[in-house]
Amino acid sequence: MSVPVPPWQQRAARNRPVKQSLSLELIVRTALDLLDGEGLDAVSMRKVAQRLGTGAASLYAYVHNKDELHELMLDLVIGEIEVPELDPQQWQEQLKDLVRQQVQVLTAHPGIAQVVMRTPAPTGPNALVISEAMLAILHSAGLPDRVVAFAVDILALFGTAVAMERSADFGLSDAERDERMRQVQQYFSELPAERFPTMVAMLPALMSGDADERFEFGLDLLVQGIATHAPSK
Asked: If one looks up domain 11-63 in CATH, what number appears?
């Protein structure tokens, strides 16, 4: 005959938090939350396991190592990009929109762009969807296959580099970064004009424009260059 549980133990059992069942999705989302709060360097198998209330060994049933975990986080982030319905008449703007979204989602999770740079070719399910979308957009413009292949690569590289720069703090606060740029401008203005005539003459232009303006200029430059390979109408 079973012995009833004392009331004080019953209350403890009711108040004890229920341990979450592990799953690959839970592990990756927990890792992404850790990245958003503490940065990429904080994302380790041990720390993720601690947040889940388990041991690191439990995670290895789902993820081989930290590098794979980082790549899974990257693919989860890429899944935030929305793919447009293909419209060959708007291929340039659709292409730009995908790159803008890429920069936006990578910047929203500081540090994740570093994973792109050290991953030879992101091949997660979400990454494949975005790659297919970009290939389809470029292909719809009638561009040669080799141009399409190279263009996808360079656009992804551009977007990633922009995201890395935007999310990097360079070890400085916003105020310190603004002060550093003020000092740079002052330093340039004091350079000897006989040695650096072009730089001194162009200083107002060199220091003009915000990050968005410069990004859009670069994006226009790339897409317009790609468009020169499209067949004449």
From this structure: 1.10.10.60
Q: Which 3 state secondary structure label does DSSP give 212? A: helix
Q: How many residues does the chain have?
A: 233
Half-sphere exposure of 227 (CA within 13 A, CB side): 15
Fold of 84-227: Tetracycline Repressor; domain 2 (1.10.357)
pTM: 0.85
Give the tokens for residue 42.
């904080």
- 175-221 pLDDT, tens digit each: 888 898 899 999 999 999 999 999 999 999 999 999 999 999 999 99
Would you tell me the crossing angle of helices 24-38 and 66-78 to the nearest 10 degrees? Answer: 90
Q: State residue 175's pLDDT score.
A: 87
Nearest residue to 112 (alpha-carbon basis) of 144, 82, 72: 72
Q: Which residues contact 22 (CB under 8 A, 6 or more apart)?
A: 52, 54, 58, 59, 61, 62
- CA dist 186 and 178 (Å) reads 12
Tokens coding 67: 């590098």
Domain boundaries, the chain: 11-63, 84-227
Q: Residue 17 pLDDT > 50, yes or no? A: no
Instruction: Using the CB atoms, write b or e for 44-75: b if 16+ within 10 Å.
Output: ebebbbeebeeeeeebeebbeebeebbbbbbb
